[in-house]
Design brief:
The structure holds two protein chains of two kinds. By secondary structure, chain A is α/β, with parallel strands linked by helices. Helices cover 42% and strands 22% of the residues of chain A. In chain A, strands 3-2-4-5-1-6 form a six-stranded parallel β-sheet, sandwiched between helices. In chain A, helix 7 packs across helix 8. The longest helix of chain A is centred in the middle third of the chain and has 20 residues, at 122-141. By secondary structure, chain B is an alpha/beta fold. The radius of gyration of chain B is 20 Å and the shape is elongated. The N and C termini of chain B lie far apart (45 Å). In chain B, the strands form two sheets. Chain B has a seven-stranded mixed β-sheet with strand order 3-2-4-5-1-6-7, with helices on both faces. A five-stranded antiparallel β-sheet of chain B has the order 8-9-10-12-11. Chain B has helices at residues 18-34, 45-55, 67-70, 77-88, 107-123, 142-151, 193-206, 211-231, 276-283; strands at residues 11-15, 39-43, 62-66, 94-98, 129-136, 154-157, 160-163, 186-190, 236-243, 246-253, 286-292, 295-303. The chains are: A alpha/beta, B alpha/beta. The interface between A and B is medium-sized, with 24 and 24 residues.
């Protein structure tokens, strides 16, 4: 199975079972970008010659390296050490690179990054989850597309699930994650799919990463299911935001409205945006 | 009757005619009002009219609720009483008339209403209030009246109040037995909550449950199955079938629920947990819960119309 049909503004998470599976996936993903006139960037936790070797099956690799259409960069040079990693600066860098690619005549920048090393502890994984959300917002607004690779074997199940959860497009052949939190339009965030015990923790970590004191807007029109524990996570983040900030729910499903009315009648900080929906 | 009590009084009131009914309830209500005790009467529809018309002007000072709606799932009655006490008691006593047991209620509903009667003693044992529970001895089966003697510390018969020698307190039985065997239906055993949920929603739709009620059932089943898988460790077994005008979903696991009042109180706004079974009770038309050394068995019922 390989990724296909992705274009600018797509942000994809690819959970892989082996090193070689990831390399095949990255080659195929970058090849699709090359055919679409993207500038390509390949990042993994390796030295430069190994990165080049990873892409030996990428057609036109050497010519693209020569022309500058393809660049390979060791993970450490991109992100630095996990404890000194500056998320906002890195997001800005990708945004700038994507703009530069556009100015150089490319459709945009396509990035394939194997970033498992950035999420080896649960603390690092939480931090990188926040970064992934910020990247997602940048991707939605830049001529940028990205596939983030995470290794099942290097990361624990919770980290894999949480990192998958904050991508609008997810591939995990073994344990697909049915829900997602990612960037929406107008500075909103979107919660999609099904939220249950499998994604409570991911939802809590993702929402906490967004809660910086101001209002958080959540678009919920594609939320197909949320259970009691999911609403508990929403209420808990809202309580942490209050009184300065609020968690504002847009177009929540009727069942979510009912659960809030029945079981969280006086919950602080959580509001349903009125004047919308059916 | 004195105007205030140090703790709960909970007599069953046996009546055999409309005259008995009025002769018992009207003085209880007017006596309460004269003593300054707020009165809440939750009675099945036709009986509401009987009491209202007998009270005449005094009816205006009484809060009435239709028990056939409030008590459809009897687990919702204790919260309603608690709310009334909180809003109205102001440190004094209150009077509540609750008639959740009426002729013609299906067996499973009568069973839950009887458990509710027994749980009142546990929920309000130290609350200064009187709960009077009318029973129609002319039309209810003898077993139901026998149960009323076991769930009420006092009996009010023919205008006389006396202690009930059969009063059993809580638990009504030394250990819950599982619910009566589920009839043949579709069944699934899994540790994957999403699979169990999809199984139930597919079958509920097929059996004719309306879309919004399928959503209610999905939330309730997910909550019960999640508890089963998380706390009981291991898979949950789920069964779904059609029973007259409802769809019934039965879940069993090896865990144990020890709080007999679980799902009958809403936690404080800042409490993290404790809302799951509460919501299950709000979303389902009947919830039968049995828990013992053998595990836990919960049966959720959602009406088809």
């Amino acid at each position: 199975m390989s990724p296909a049909g992705y274009g600018p503004n797509d942000h994809l998470c690819w959970v892989h079972e082996s090193e070689s599976a990831w390399v095949d996936t990255a080659v195929s993903y970058l090849d699709e970008g090359a055919r679409g006139q993207d500038q390509l960037l390949y990042v993994a936790d390796k030295r430069e010659p190994e990165l080049v070797d990873d892409l030996r099956d990428l057609s036109g690799r050497d010519a693209m390296l020569e022309s500058g259409q393809l660049r390979v960069v060791p993970l450490g040079e991109v992100y630095g050490a996990t404890d000194s990693f500056d998320e906002a600066r890195q997001v800005h860098t990708y945004h700038e690179l994507a703009q530069a690619a556009r100015q150089a005549g490319y459709r945009g920048l396509r990035l394939a990054a194997e970033a498992s090393s950035m999420a080896r502890t649960s603390e690092a994984a939480q931090r990188f989850t926040r970064y992934e959300l910020m990247v997602d917002a940048a991707i939605a607004e830049s001529p940028l597309s990205a596939m983030c690779g995470y290794s099942r074997h290097l990361l624990d199940d919770d980290a894999v699930r949480t990192l998958s959860f904050v991508h609008p497009i997810r591939h995990d052949a073994k344990r697909p994650v049915k829900g997602s939190l990612h960037a929406g339009g107008d500075g909103h965030w979107r919660l999609d799919g099904e939220i249950d015990v499998a994604t409570w923790e991911a939802l809590g970590i993702g929402l906490s990463a967004l809660a910086d004191g101001a209002d958080v807007h959540l678009d919920l029109e594609d939320l197909t299911f949320i259970d009691v524990g999911g609403v508990r996570a929403l209420a808990s983040v809202a309580r942490a935001l209050a009184p300065e900030g609020r968690l504002i729910l847009h177009e929540p499903p009727d069942t979510l409205r009912r659960m809030l009315e029945l079981a969280w009648p006086d919950a602080p900080g959580i509001e349903v945006a009125e004047g919308e929906g059916p | 009757m004195t105007s205030s009590h140090p703790c709960l009084r909970h007599p069953a009131f046996f009546y055999a005619s409309r005259e008995d009914y009025v002769a018992g309830l009207v003085p209880f209500i007017t006596g309460g009002l004269q003593a300054g005790e707020p009165v809440l009467a939750a009675l099945p529809g036709p009986n509401l009219d009987v009491v209202r018309s007998s009270l005449e002007d005094a009816a205006e000072d009484v809060t009435f609720l239709d028990m056939s709606k409030l008590g459809r799932n009897p687990a919702r009655i204790i919260p309603a009483i608690r709310r009334f006490v909180k809003d109205r008691a102001a440190g004094g006593s209150v009077r509540f008339i609750g008639e959740p047991i009426w002729p013609g209620r299906p067996r499973a509903e009568l069973e839950e209403a009887t458990r509710h009667e027994a749980l009142l003693n546990l929920a309000f044992g130290t609350t200064p209030m009187t709960i009077l529970c009318p029973y129609d001895t002319a039309r209810l089966p003898a077993k139901v009246i026998d149960d009323a003697r076991r769930t009420h510390p006092e009996l009010l018969v023919g205008g006389h109040r006396r202690t009930s020698p059969e009063y059993a307190g809580w638990p009504l039985h030394p250990d819950d037995a599982p619910l009566p065997r589920a009839p043949a239906g579709e069944s699934m055993t899994s540790e994957d909550v999403a699979c169990l949920r999809h199984f139930v929603t597919d079958h509920a739709r097929r059996l004719g449950v309306a879309a919004d009620r399928v959503g209610d059932l999905a939330i309730a089943v997910t909550e019960v199955a999640t508890n089963a898988v998380r706390h009981a460790g291991g898979p949950a077994t789920l069964r779904i079938w059609n029973d007259r005008d409802a769809v019934v979903c039965d879940i069993s696991d090896r865990g144990r629920i020890t709080d007999p009042l679980a799902g009958r109180h809403l936690p404080a706004p800042d409490a993290e947990s404790g809302r799951g079974l509460w919501l299950v009770n709000q979303l389902c038309d009947l919830v039968e819960l049995r828990s013992g050394h053998w595990g836990t068995n919960i049966r959720l019922r959602v009406a088809l119309n």
